[in-house]
Amino acid sequence: MSDHFIRIIPVDPRFVPTKRAQKAAIAVIRAAAPMTDEVSSETDDQIVFRDCGENFERVRCPGCGNEIALDTWQEWMSADYSDDDGFRLEALAIPCCNHRATLNELRYEMAQGFSRYVLSAMNIGQELPSSVLAKLEGALGCQLRIIRQMI
Fold first, then answer.
1. Separation of alpha carbons 86 and 45, rounded Å
2. What is the percentage of the chain residues whose pLDDT exceeds 90?
3. C-alpha torsion sign, points 22, 129, 135, 138
4. What are phi and psi of 86, to 5 degrees?
5. At the topology level of CATH, where does 1-56+112-151 sit?
6. Distance CA 65, CA 13 (A)
7. Given Cys at both, which of 14, 115, 122, 134 links 9, Cβ 3.0 to 4.6 Å?
8. Do residues 89 and 49 touch, judged by C-beta distance below 8 A?
9. Looking at 24-143, which runs of residues are DSSP E strands?
10. What is the pLDDT of residues 109-119, one digit of tens each?
11. Measured CA distances, 11 to 36, 39, 65, 140, 146 (Å)
12. pLDDT at residue 108 above 80?
């Protein structure tokens, strides 16, 4: 049986909320979805790629919408990553239209992203209502991106 996670990350990949804010966000999730199997809040020293697991479909250019070949995207991921620094998220020129964007700014179908901080809920059993997302953004003090991961 597959597990389903929602990974909630700041839109700004470098942003890390305070410990107090992280505890408040956990309380928001637990109140909104009390049957959730597991809720966690994690901060990494480096920027980490937060993938959607088996939900992955494709990557598109944010400038023109053209699909980016997976082997090209994987090369960009390898070039941008360092064991010492994690992902640097340096802007690159996308060949289809020469639009400049970081890996975080690419259009992922299903959503994926990069962050130092992640709030996770396992088997939440529902879509997260926009009102709950607004409460989470207020608690954490930032705009958020939701990643639906299936493992």
1. 9
2. 85
3. positive
4. 70, -150
5. Alpha-Beta Plaits (3.30.70)
6. 22
7. 115
8. no
9. 38-50, 58-60, 67-68, 81-82, 86-87, 92-94, 99-101, 107-109, 113-122
10. 999 999 999 99
11. 24, 20, 20, 12, 9
12. yes
Look-up of token digits 């396992």? 122
Q: Does position 140 have pLDDT exceeding 80, yes or no?
A: yes
Specify the pLDDT at position 1.
58
What whole-number distance in Å separates Cα of residue 52 and Cα of residue 45? 21
Domains in the chain: boundaries: 1-56+112-151, 59-109
Condensed to tens digits (0 to 9), the pLDDT of residues 4-58 reads 899 999 999 999 999 999 999 999 999 999 888 899 999 999 999 999 999 999 9
Round to whole Å and give the CA distance between 89 and 13: 9
Q: Please report, as a single letter, which amino acid is at residue 89.
A: L
Using omega within 30 degrees of 0 as the cis cutoff, is the peptide bond preceding 77 cis?
no
Q: 78 Cβ partners below 8 Å, 6+ apart?
A: none
pLDDT at 126: 73
